[in-house]
């Protein structure tokens, strides 16, 4: 940990020198401020959303309308966090010869946090209250096997809620990293222009 503005701050886990607007698959986790369970509750392995959870889901699904180089993959809204896989693609060429926008994982996650927080604060009549934690976790998905493991983790997240590290009062949480596999760093091309670093 290092000091930033006289406060301890966790070092970035991002890959140095990596362009996070580069085509590929990325896994994102965003937690609610102070991990409060505002999006709903899980009962018998099923997530039951509040109106705030419905807003979070609706606005996540609308993200591709705002970012022309984004395709959504598997995602889940949980009581106090969300997981999503995004695919960044090369932006389509524009007719008027302007340079197409290349949005990064940070642009997408921060845009989502901003739009959803504004909407949730408007509904709750509490303008300006934090909805999300200031940071988020992302991971470059390195190969097809890892992509499938993370999809499986996301799909099963409600069934694993009571042992999730975000579960309030969990005795032995399972860290997210245990689902990532061995993180082999080999290059592989999958589909159109998608490179796993």
Largest sheet, spatial ordering of strands: 6-7-3-8
Number of domains: 1
How much strand?
15-25%
CATH superfamily: Transposase IS200-like
Q: Any guess at the CATH architecture?
A: 2-Layer Sandwich
Distance between the termini: 27 Å
Low-pLDDT sequence parts: 172-197
Q: In the CATH scheme, what's the topology name? A: Alpha-Beta Plaits
Helical segment tally?
Answer: 4
What do you see in this structure?
- The protein is an alpha+beta fold.
- The protein has one domain: 2-Layer Sandwich (Alpha-Beta Plaits), CATH 3.30.70.1290.
- The protein contains four helices and ten strands.
- The chain has helices at 51-61, 63-66, 105-124, 144-156; strands at residues 2-4, 7-9, 24-31, 40-43, 46-49, 70-77, 81-88, 137-140, 188-190, 194-196.
- The strands form four sheets. Strands 6-7-3-8 form a four-stranded antiparallel sheet. It has a two-stranded antiparallel ribbon with strand order 1-2. A two-stranded antiparallel sheet has the order 4-5.
- Helix 1 (51-61) runs antiparallel to helix 3 (105-124).
- The chain is globular, with a radius of gyration of 17 Å.
Which key features would you list for this structure?
single chain; two-stranded antiparallel sheet; Alpha-Beta Plaits; 197 residues; disordered C terminus; 4 helices; globular; alpha+beta
Q: What is the topological layout?
A:
Layout: E1 2-4, E2 7-9, E3 24-31, E4 40-43, E5 46-49, H1 51-61, H2 63-66, E6 70-77, E7 81-88, H3 105-124, E8 137-140, H4 144-156, E9 188-190, E10 194-196
Antiparallel strand pairs: 1-2, 3-7, 3-8, 4-5, 6-7, 9-10
Helix pairs in contact: 1-3
């Amino acid at each position: 940990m290092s000091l930033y503005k006289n406060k301890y701050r966790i070092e970035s886990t991002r890959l140095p020198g990596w362009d996070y607007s580069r085509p590929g698959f990325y896994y994102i986790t965003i937690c609610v401020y102070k991990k409060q369970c505002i999006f709903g509750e899980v009962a018998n392995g099923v997530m039951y959303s509040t109106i705030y959870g419905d807003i979070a889901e609706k606005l996540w699904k609308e993200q591709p309308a705002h970012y022309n180089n984004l395709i959504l993959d598997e995602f889940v809204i949980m009581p106090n966090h969300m997981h999503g896989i995004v695919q960044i693609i090369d932006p389509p060429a524009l007719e008027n010869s302007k340079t197409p926008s290349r949005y990064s994982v940070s642009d997408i996650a921060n845009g989502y946090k901003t739009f959803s927080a504004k909407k949730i604060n408007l509904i709750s009549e509490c303008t300006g209250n934090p909805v999300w934690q200031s940071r988020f976790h992302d991971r470059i998905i390195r190969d097809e096997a890892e992509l499938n493991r993370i999809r499986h983790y996301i799909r099963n997240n409600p069934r694993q809620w009571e042992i999730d590290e975000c579960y309030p009062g969990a005795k032995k949480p399972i860290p997210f990293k245990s689902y990532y596999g061995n993180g082999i760093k080999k290059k592989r091309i999958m589909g159109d222009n998608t490179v796993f670093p």
